[in-house]
Structures are given as C-alpha cells and as structure tokens.
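User: Can you fold this complex?
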Amino acid sequence: MPKYMEIYQEVRRRIVSGIYAPDKKLPEGSKLALEFACSELTVAKALDLLVREGLVLRKRGLGSFVKRLASAASNSHLLGTAERCAWSGKTLETRVQCFTAVPASEDIARKLLMPTGELVYEINRVRVIDGIPSIIEYTWMPIALIPQLNLGHVRQSIYRYITGELGFTVHSAHMNISGVQASEQEIEWLALSGPTVLVQVDQTAFLDNGKLFEYSCARHLWHTFNFETDFVRV
Amino acid sequence: MPKYMEIYQEVRRRIVSGIYAPDKKLPEGSKLALEFACSELTVAKALDLLVREGLVLRKRGLGSFVKRLASAASNSHLLGTAERCAWSGKTLETRVQCFTAVPASEDIARKLLMPTGELVYEINRVRVIDGIPSIIEYTWMPIALIPQLNLGHVRQSIYRYITGELGFTVHSAHMNISGVQASEQEIEWLALSGPTVLVQVDQTAFLDNGKLFEYSCARHLWHTFNFETDFVRV
DNA sequence: AAGTGGTCTAGACCACACT
DNA sequence: GTGTGGTCTAGACCACTTG
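Assistant: Here's the predicted assembly.
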C-alpha cells in the first residue's frame, strides 16, 4: 500500500474518532510530514483524498481544517446491492426472475459499447431488503467478459463473484437517476397495491482493465430509496 | 491558471473534439511533458483530473486511454438551477412564494451547523422550466453569510449573486436523493392533477471559505427529474 | 515578516504488461 | 528487456492570510 494511502487512512481514523475535531485545525503539512517520515507532497496527496471526500478543507495561508465528522461511504456507489446491504446491516433475499444468455439487442449493445448479436447475460432480480421487496434489477453483461457465471452467483452477489473469484476490481460507474412509472409486471413483483412511481438508477460500470462489463437498470421503491453523495470542486 | 489545469483543458478539448478517439491510446506522459514543456508529474496531475471525470483510463505498463467521449458536466452539481438551465438551453421562470428572514428553528440550525435562533433567509420558490412548473425549492441561508440578498436576486439566481456580486465560490455540496409524497400545497404549486410522488434532493453546500451557507430541499416532478454522475475509484 | 498551502521540477526507483 | 504509469523525494518559488 502506498504511503499516502496509509497517511490518508490514519488521518481519516483520527477525524472519525474525534482526535481531530470538526472546525479544528489539522497539524500543518510539515508537521505531518515529520510524523510520517515523508515529504510534504506525500502528505498533500493524502489530504487531497480527504478533501475530495468532503471531510477536510485546506485554506492557503491558514491551514487545513476538519469540515464535518460523518461522510457517506464515499465509494459505496461502486459496490453491489449485496455488499451495500451487508455494510449497513440489512438482510437481503434475492428472487431471480430471469437468468439467460441472449444475443445483445441493438439497444443493449449500444449501452455496452459492443457489437449487436454477441451473447450477453440477461438477468432480472427482485431484491427483498429487510423483508420488503424493494428493488427490481435488470442487468446485462457480456458473457465474454464474465465467464462461468452461474445461478448460485446470481442468487447471491454478482459483484462478489467478479471481485472475489474472478479477481477483478470495479473501476468506475456512470449513473443516471430518474423517475419512472411502475409496469404491471413490476407492480406484481414488488407486491404493490396499485400504480406508483419508482426511482430508476441506470448504470454502466467499468472494470479496472477498462472494459465496460455491465449495464443495469435498478428500479427502487420510492419510499425506501436513498442516494447520498458529495461533490467537491477540484 | 496552473499549468496542469491548462494541460487538462487542452487534452479534454482534444478528446471531445475527437483528436484523441475512444479506446485509443493517448500520447505517453513523457511525450505530453515534452509538448507542454513541463515535468511528467504535472502531466500526471492533469490526466488524473480526466480519470476522475471518467474520461480517461490509465493502465500501468500499457498507457493512457480514452474511455468514452461524452461526460456529464462533472461540476454541474455545484451550480444553481438557473445556471443549469442556461447551460442546457432551457427557459426558466421563477415564482417566489416566500422570501423572509426568520430565527433558525432547531431543525434548520442543525442542518446549517449554526446556533438556534440566529436569523436565516427562508425562501420558497417554484421553478418553471420550459413552461412546466418542475421544481419546488425550499432554501435556508444564514443572513450573516449572505448579506444584502434581495427579491431581485431571489427571482433570478441566488448562486449568481453569491458567486458574482459577493465573489464567493461554491466549494462543495453534500446531497441526498429520495422520494416523497407531494403535499397539498405542492400539488397546487406544481398544478398537478392529483397526489403523486416527487423526487427530493436534500442538500447542504459550502463556500470556499469553509462556511456552510445553504440548506436546501428541492422537490422535482418525477418525470422531468434527471441526475447524472460518475464514480471513479481513487 | 512569518507561516501556510499550491505548484512545479528533475530525478530516482518500483510495479506492471508486453515482446 | 523495454516501455509504461505510480510513488516518492528534496528543494524551489509563489499566493494567500495574519500579525
């Protein structure tokens, strides 16, 4: 692990544990460089991570300050539903409605930046969180990129298979949040009493090898949906 | 403007203009350093911005590659509604329903990290976009931080007043997206035909001096709401 | 004037992917 | 082995804030 990452984690630990309190000044770059036996630039690189996370503010001529205590798990948006549930202590049950391999339609091929007609997994799942059917996930992934996916993985966590057994890392995701009217099928799957609106999270995701490996469309119950994030000017 | 920012903008321009095409390799760090007459570290800093924006992928041992052409305006989430409309060529009309100064309630004070009872602006506005009442915005800001705000500013753009006339910069924002049921009042203001769900964007925003200057709650029509963003592992 | 962060350099060494 | 990006250093200079 790079040194700047260790410094980042240690300073972050001190912030969340209250050693560095909100609105208080952090030690100067030179002090931290001395403590961690590194150059000031390495310290700056570590603190920049905290700035981007929304925890720290650096003011030229003044010093570095703790902005606030809590922070959204800043990379939680690159996790799958199963990991997010585990992380927040929620129970998850998955109902697989569809798990097949089909030639990519023109629409799906365009989303996945791949040739039309190549095989993709088509997966539809209902996610039951804390006993409530909360999310319907439609997922498409090129078979060529994710070999040997089976029903067991789909029932549990596809992300866990990809990051664990295949050894990949999810590098990035592009997402789009909007509102949609629930279809008849979705009303049934979510056991809704009638027509309603769902919150749709449309997403394409990339592996660290640069391949676009997933297009997914997740439709959430509006009253359990929550999406938290930070934006920091760079 | 720092050199790495110029390099960032120039390389970005070349990507969006197609000079560097998707999936193609960018010139190596050493080549770019030579072209821009700077050190490789400065080039790396520039390319890191593009990586974080989701436009570029750097692979150790291989090179840097263009990931995709288009990108969400990556900092558009730090703009106000008026700027976003202007940027995307939409017309905006604003109906100010409330513009007063009141002592901060316990709830608002907690959101704004300020003492209860200090004066805050309380502003309710309906935003009519392309002729459709689309957003209801409830905004609270400490008077002490944003002096001399008047009805003209509120009718146009508060952000424009803050960044233009006051000379501040919006440094960061923390936001939370969820679904809510529209109130009677909101049904009337948005001219809805009946009860429906709205998409709520809850936000606290910071100035570059580190002050929390705004808590706002924007409720959007679900069928016009759209929120686009990228997440990149750091 | 003194202290702080921001930028930049030149060079070193390492990790990784290809040949 | 060669070439690529990733990390790190020591030091320089600048911009900004406060005294």
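Residues 2-4, 38-42, 45, 59-62 of chain A lie near DNA strand D (CB under 10 Å from a C1'). Helices of chain A lie at 3-16, 29-35, 40-52, 81-87, 106-111, 151-155, 158-165, 184-189.
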